[in-house]
Write a structure and sequence with these properties.
Elements: E1 4-7, E2 12-15, E3 25-28, E4 33-38, E5 43-47, E6 54-56, E7 71-75, E8 80-81, E9 94-99, E10 103-110, E11 113-120, E12 127-136, E13 142-155, H1 157-160, H2 164-167, E14 173-176, E15 179-182, H3 186-189, E16 192-198, E17 204-208, H4 209-213, H5 224-228, E18 241-251, E19 255-267, H6 283-291, H7 295-313, E20 316-319, H8 323-343, E21 358-359, H9 360-368, H10 375-386, E22 398-399, H11 417-432, E23 441-442, E24 452-453, H12 454-466, E25 510-511, H13 512-531, H14 535-555, E26 565-566, E27 572-573, E28 583-584, H15 585-593, H16 598-613, E29 614-615, E30 618-619, E31 622-623, E32 649-650, H17 654-663, H18 667-677, H19 686-689, E33 697-700, E34 711-714, H20 719-731, E35 734-737, E36 740-743, E37 754-760, E38 763-770, E39 779-781, E40 784-786, E41 790-792, E42 799-805
Parallel strand pairs: 38-42
Antiparallel strand pairs: 1-2, 2-9, 3-4, 4-5, 6-13, 7-8, 7-13, 9-10, 10-11, 11-12, 12-19, 13-18, 14-15, 15-16, 16-19, 17-18, 20-37, 21-22, 23-24, 25-26, 26-27, 28-31, 29-30, 32-33, 33-34, 35-36, 36-41, 37-38, 39-40, 39-42
Helix pairs in contact: 8-20, 9-10, 9-11, 9-20, 10-11, 11-12, 11-13, 13-14, 13-15, 15-16, 15-17, 16-17, 17-18, 17-20, 18-20
């Protein structure tokens, strides 16, 4: 069964059935003010930080799922219903949700009345606009009652869900004409509040959830106000504050009316604060609210949003003979890259927004697929990330986006983290040629007075790995490397004595994966050193790269594939000697990308991936899955076989193998693996796959799982960034290089000639890739034929017409 289809012309996914296997969501906002919205109107809104600035309440693990959000109740004189189906579940004559780029349109029709709600956040304002269009398709005048509803969260989303003994006493609101102001905690902070407004005279309002429902035993489906069609004008004092605004519309036959609701956030400036009263200062916010009462301003803001996305996505576009490939690269993969850059792993329908904040390794990797879109924002993020690094090169694993402070509860000790900073900085410099970032003064651990040039942070990152090696000359794994669930230090060599769970861990457990990372990214670091005159440092690190490569070959090679690690006792992990977990995917991809042992080692490793790890949805993380718990391996063995890290298709690492295939010049296998979990290519499996068919999920249950093929954790995953890199920079082969734009495709036979439009360093490139064995290896640049792979940039030339023969 198909629940919808792609509309490439409008860059939308169109959902025709409200009861999707799981809620299929979209993201609103792109500049600090964000919203998550499902195909039935569920979700929530926050400013900057999903934990500390949560505007509206959302309940995870709710029954039924996704109950609560931005609801519009419609009474057409006969029945009451919702255009998004929930919460009333009244059967509609027609339903449609269009998830677009930064907006969602939900349309429902009943008894000749069509209601369409367009949800979006303007580019530079802290307000969520809901444009409600009510169309009377009958020949008779209709009186329509409309109730807009949101439920406020009490700002700190974690405290909102736990500290009820306090929170049930602090809810405060104000109502002024057609606006509900949510001012809980304003008494303490006196500088921020939220509001819900409609640009029409209201018939009534409610701000008390209990009053609206009529009883604490009712739900949004049988709320008393909705059943009686009469607001109570309740004013919340404590309890659970909401905002409900009722309007009445008289619409002639075959005509329509449009009204605008606003869900906004406002911070009083210093001169707007009251010192002696708890009443909020509305002077500044009234002007902002009034702006979007004007339909022309709303239309203008929506058009600007669409232009923003058209421009942003135009920095990399392709035209090929494969519609699905074009769709992923041109629209949905890049869109997801932007979302993961904005959110890291903080706020989705699988991440509550209260725990992880912005991940260090996550955000560094997100930059790889985002930097070509808005390089200046990547630069800002790099500085934020480097600012939570310690002097020795280790880093906090996470930070809160509002405070920019490292998360002390999680701490550091994830020994892959520092190297990802090198990856992000090298990607940024290749894209922009901006070496000045290396001179930016950046603190350690956000401590004033500790600032040093960003280059010193890269130095600390590289030397952290150099200074933390184990008995085989391989990097110590610490608490974990990329795989947080491979916990090789979770117990001590002394029986009954546990290791620390925070900070650096004193153990000999080693990671072959980090070794592959080091060889790859230390090579990038050497390049940066040589290009900035630091030749002595470059020479030193080259020797360390050679030592690490030899350590992998001598101690990290299992004969047919790369080992995964050594545990705290010196036992091999991911070896043919192992009973379970004989082969892991991560080092096969990364060590092949780093060309450790040369192409022949890579060919053998990837042949083993083909033999042991592949299924119809991609390559599984390990094989065979663990069937019993191993204390010396940790959380990875706590999952049922075939789930999550224990043998699922962990989509994040599949692109490493795709890039590995391109490294050994095997375009057929690269594209085959790419297609196995690319959303557009598996849309027809939605009933099995379950998550959204337009974005990547983190994991797909493997062959050993009872729910083989079922995906989990959609949207916020490094899969987005890495898959875009794999497809655009390695299969299509158009990628940024220090010296210019490199064009080195590794195309499969099913992809014919490709045209690529690339905006790079303020210059436009129109590239045609042509399969021609007679002219293979040549490139024609503005009419000049050359035997090179890199288009050198000349200051006087702004447009490049390139033909690459392969």
């Amino acid at each position: 069964m198909k629940y919808g289809q792609f509309d490439d012309k409008r860059k939308e996914y169109v959902i025709k059935e409200p009861l999707t296997p799981v809620p299929w969501i979209n993201y609103l906002g792109n500049n600090g003010y964000y919203g998550l919205i499902s195909n039935t109107g569920g979700g929530y809104t926050f400013y900057q930080d999903a934990k500390l600035r949560r505007l509206t309440r959302y309940r995870y693990n709710n029954v039924p799922t996704d109950f609560g959000g931005r609801y519009y109740y419609i009474n057409d004189g006969e029945v009451t219903w919702n255009p998004g189906y929930l919460p009333l579940k009244m059967k509609l004559d027609r339903y449609e949700t269009r998830h677009g780029l930064g907006y969602t349109i939900i349309t429902g029709e009943k008894n000749g009345i069509e209601v369409s709600v367009t949800y979006f956040i303007p580019l530079n304002d802290k307000v969520e606009i809901h444009v409600v269009k009510v169309k009377n398709k009958t020949n008779k005048e209709k009186t329509i009652k409309l109730f807009g509803l949101v439920e406020w969260a009490l700002w700190n989303a974690e405290d909102d869900q736990t500290n009820f003994q306090r929170n049930l006493n602090i809810g405060e609101v104000e109502v002024e004409e057609n606006t509900v102001y949510h001012k809980t905690e304003y008494r303490e902070r006196r500088n921020h509040f939220a509001y819900y407004n409609v640009n029409k005279e209201i018939k009534g309002f409610d701000t008390s959830r209990e009053a609206f429902l009529g009883s604490n035993y009712n739900t949004w489906r049988d709320a008393e106000v909705i059943e009686t069609l009469k607001s109570k004008n309740s004013l919340a004092s404590g309890g659970s504050p909401i905002a409900s605004l009722e309007v009445e519309l008289k619409i002639a036959g075959n005509s329509e009316e449009e009204i605008i609701y606003q869900l906004g956030y406002y911070e009083n400036k210093e001169d707007e604060k009251f010192e002696k009263t708890n009443l909020i200062n509305k002077k500044g916010v009234r002007k902002e609210i009034k702006k979007y009462h004007d339909k022309k301003e709303v239309k203008k803001a929506f058009e600007e949003l669409n232009k923003f996305w058209d421009k942003t996505l135009s920095n990399y576009k392709i035209e090929s003979n494969n519609e699905k490939f074009d769709r992923m690269i041109n629209i949905w993969n890049q869109y997801q890259c932007m979302t993961t850059f904005n959110m890291s792993r903080s706020a989705s329908y699988y991440e509550s927004g209260t725990g992880r904040g912005m991940g260090f390794r996550d955000s560094c990797q997100d930059i790889l697929g985002f930097v070509h879109m808005i390089p200046e924002r990547s630069r800002e993020r790099i500085i934020d990330l480097a600012s939570i690094q310690m002097k020795d090169g280790s880093t906090y694993h996470q930070y809160q986006p509002l405070t920019k402070k490292g998360n002390a509860n999680i701490g550091s000790g994830f020994n892959d983290d520092p190297l990802w900073l090198v990856a992000a900085v090298s990607a940024y410099i290749k894209e922009t040629n901006d070496y000045t970032i290396l001179e930016e003064m950046v603190p350690y651990n956000n401590e004033v007075g500790s600032e040093e040039p960003l280059f010193n942070h890269l130095y600390a990152s590289i030397h952290y790995t150099i200074n933390n090696k184990g008995p085989h000359g391989l990097p110590l794994i610490g608490r974990a490397d990329w795989n947080d669930c491979l916990n090789l230090n979770c117990f001590s060599k002394n029986p009954g004595e546990s290791f620390q769970t925070t900070g650096n861990i004193d153990s000999d457990a080693e990671s072959v994966f980090i070794a592959g990372m080091f060889v790859k990214y230390a090579t990038e670091y050497v390049e940066i050193c040589e290009r900035t005159g630091k030749h002595e440092e470059a020479s030193l690190v080259k020797k360390e790269i050679d030592l690490m490569s030899k350590a992998v070959i001598n101690h990290g090679w299992d004969g047919e594939w790369y080992l995964r690690a050594y545990d705290a006792f010196g036992n091999k992990v991911g070896s043919n000697e192992s009973e379970e977990g004989k082969i892991f995917i991560e080092p096969q991809g990364f060590c092949t990308m780093a060309e450790i042992g040369g192409i022949e080692y890579g060919k053998k490793a990837l042949a083993s991936v083909d033999k042991y790890l592949k299924n119809e949805y991609g390559a599984e993380l390990l094989y065979p899955a663990y069937t019993k718990y191993h204390l010396e391996l940790g959380e990875i063995t706590s999952y049922p076989p075939g789930n999550k890290e224990n043998g699922s298709v962990f989509c994040h690492n599949n692109p490493w193998v795709v890039i590995g295939y391109t490294t050994i010049r095997d375009g057929e296998k690269a594209f085959d693996l790419y297609k196995r979990n690319a959303p557009a290519f598996i849309e027809d499996k939605s009933e099995i796959h379950r998550t959204e068919p337009y974005v990547y999920s983190q994991t797909i249950a493997g062959r050993a799982a009872k729910n083989y093929g079922e995906a989990k954790n959609s949207w916020l995953t490094g899969t987005a960034s890495w898959t875009f890199v794999a497809a655009s920079a390695h299969i299509v082969g158009v990628r940024a290089h220090y010296d210019g734009l490199e064009i080195d495709p590794v195309l499969p036979s099913e992809i014919d000639n490709v045209r690529v439009y690339r905006r790079f360093r303020d210059k436009d490139f129109d590239i045609t890739i042509i399969k021609d064995s007679k002219r293979k290896g040549t490139m024609v640049i503005n009419g000049e034929e050359l035997k090179i792979n890199i288009v050198p940039l000349k200051g006087s030339i702004d447009t490049y017409k390139v033909i690459k023969y392969i």
